[in-house]
Amino acid sequence: MSQLNESQDRENPEQSQGAVLDVQGLTKRYSGGVFKRNSIEALRGIDLQAGQGEVFGILGPNGAGKTTLIKVLLGVVKPTSGIAHLFGQSVGSVEARKRVGYLPESLRIDRHHTARSALAYYGRLSGMNATAISKRTDELLDLVGLAGRDRESVSRFSKGMYQRLGLAQALMHDPDLLILDEPTDGLDPVGRNGVRRVIEALREQGKTIFLNSHILQEVELVCTRVAILARGKIRGVGSVEELTHHLSSETYLLHIESNRPSECADQIESLAQQIELDTERLSYREVTDGQFELHVSLNERSQLDALVDCLRENQNSIQHLEKKRPSLEDLFMQLVGDHGGRTE
Ligand code: ATP
Lowest CB count within 10 Å: 173, 192, 245, 326, which one? Predict the structure, then answer.
């Protein structure tokens, strides 16, 4: 996948100059144990650039190094080697920090606060005066859709409202870069949509957003570019379209009607073996009596013909066959698969 990174670099040669975020050859080794025998290389030579107005998503399985990367960008973890700049300044410098807002994964706002008093509190922490706080609070309550709810106790807020207030606190000092750590985790679709709308409004204002999320559909919907991180290395960078374009497998959706529905599940598994298809590349569910929906991810087109032949030989009638646009999830599974975690 380094090829993808290289081509990305070639396509954006100007990005490291004037980039909002510029990371080159970044490594982080956590030393562990007395003789550092248990040291862990959380980041192993990361190169990343993000420009103004981008919503840049970072994806990866557990233990990939995402939190470490965010901590380096926030200046709270010192890298072992490499370059990490924000707005051309070293991460952690006062100049860089002033321009960054951060929404942590589990922000805790004291329950006694209202939205307005909470924002006033965070404004004071940023060194803002009362007039600036009041003006900014009104703007942000409007932006995050909490105008009119500003005097209610946050203890009565839904999770979605709470997260939108979290976004507002990160924006109090009007940062140019917003780092969001799992901003939609635990939210229902309505809550996720609310957060997404705020992110889109911020992008329109020209803010840059660095988003860590494990909700792939979310990333697909909102991010202009995505980096996939696994075991401390970047496996691919680009827009979802650019990345999925490189996928070697093709995904198909089939609707079939079986004359022998009770045997259909067994048949499907045995035909996967016949056409030498990994069973994890094939999923199916019974939609209604005798009607099945199959999702298959194929490495070679010839497997599709074989699959159709096998299905028909087994008395199944094919009602619908459709080639699916590869999703970020397909890419993620291909790059990271079941072995992406730091288990080895
Ligand atoms: P998750 O999605 O589970 O939060 P992550 O992608 O954020 O994972 P990190 O938390 O950055 O991954 O961890 C990367 C690796 O570094 C893991 O193997 C983790 O155990 C290790 N690690 C993280 N922090 C420390 C630390 N302070 N000391 C030692 N090892 C650490």
Answer: 245
